[in-house]
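TL;DR need structure tokens for one chain.
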Amino acid sequence: MAKPTSVPPGRITDPAVISILQVPSDNPFGVTAQVPTSPPPKLTFEDATVSTNQFVSVRVDPTGKPVGFRLERDPIPSLAGEAQKSLARWTFEPARGAAGPVETWAALRLDLVVEINAPRSVQSSVTMVTPSTPVPRPLAWPNDDVWIASRKPGATGDGVAPLETVDNPPMPRKTPWSATSYKGPFSAKFWVHVKASGIVDKAIPLAASDPVLVGYLRRAMTGWTFHPAQTNAGGIDSWNEMFLSGQVSYSVDLKQIASLRKSLGGS
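>> reply
TL;DR here they are.
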């Protein structure tokens, strides 16, 4: 039998075939201008109706009584307290396994219709993004399908059957809902790209008191005309950080409840 030969360790002696670059120290979105971008003298808003979904987990015991709640994805945190009070009053058909009723965490999608009244007394501030401005982290609010795909079943513990193992999931039976209206403060922050013409053609959300407002505010921006940043050569495109705050009110209607077959708690 031939004696195996050992392979000598490789040596890094050849020139690199991939360019090695330094991370830029300057913000690649920043520009320098003699006159910064400024917002329009009056921000206009309209009433609008928005459809959105809230995802909740409810721990349902074998009698159908809810004994625990988690708001997993909440587009209206301003109404979280009322939403939890409502869930505490719900009753369910319990989950069933081969041996009968079992305790598990129900996964529910609540289909909501939100009527947003045009905000009042809105204040705004705009700060132009320069080469020294730190790049922020965007608001983590992917679409529903992407968010659901990111959920992974986790260990339930405490003798609770995993939702994926039951024959029939818990089904809501009585569903009183009191999280129907909000009137109070709101705030939001965006990076907005203002063209030399003064129109906004891109808006990246960074924060929002209620994520349901993100799409609404983006649509409102399409009707605004800014005073663009200026250099000696005239108006230029620029990125800007815009902060909005004021008073808003909306009414919320719970249209439909869907019982899902996938746990929502893991990520």
